Amino acid sequence: MSTTSQARKTVAILGNGVVGTALAGGFAELGYQVIFGTRDVTSEKTRAALEAVPGSRAASFAEAAAAAEVAVLAIPWSGLEAAIFTAGPDNLVGKLVIDPSNPLDFSGEVPTLAIADDSAGELVQRLLPRSQVVKAFNTVTAAHMVHPRLPDGTPDMFIAGNDAAAKQRVAELLAGFGWRAPIDVGAIGASRLLEAMAMLWVTYGFRNDHWTHAFSLLGQKR
What we know:
With 222 residues, the protein is α/β, with parallel strands linked by helices. The chain has helices at 3-8, 18-29, 44-52, 61-67, 77-87, 120-127, 164-176, 191-208; strands at residues 10-14, 33-37, 57-59, 70-73, 96-99, 104-105, 112-113, 132-135, 158-161, 183-184. 38% of the residues lie in helices and 16% in strands. Helix 5 (77-87) links the parallel strand 4 (70-73) and strand 5 (96-99). Helix 4 packs across helix 5 (77-87) and helix 5 runs parallel beside helix 6. The termini are far apart.
């Protein structure tokens, strides 16, 4: 197998928390080599992520980004920009970058959106102008990101991005993860809508102390 072929089956999961670990498991099921990008490859958190995804390995953010053809920004909003620069925009040129982040401010009793007239998705695309950024996975809990199963219905995944081919690639990944066809809401600027949806998800969770809900669009055009 050529180096190029190997790269096409490698994903950099930048972050090793619950979101990164959940998505890493999905990619591993599809036959991808998973590389967790982390600041500390020997930390307890990193070891837990590696144990959760057999066959995965850990590397620095930059090493992981350079080695993979797909990258997932599984980083909290507070560290998102720094993580992108640590990974190196040049290491992500021409690659699909999936952004599941939400710009949340946790300084109050209940989280709020941390930015106005902008979105995390747009920021990521500005910081990575030569990458194909797709907003996805930001409106559902990590436990349902792969093989979503809810007792009272099938959830939908909403995506946004500027590149049609990149969104088609994400649609194929979602199918492999057990989702039906995603709902494409448009260019990356529509991340503002999806991040507001995530705020609605969070608000419902806090008001009801319930964290396993998801959205579904009924009566879709077929």
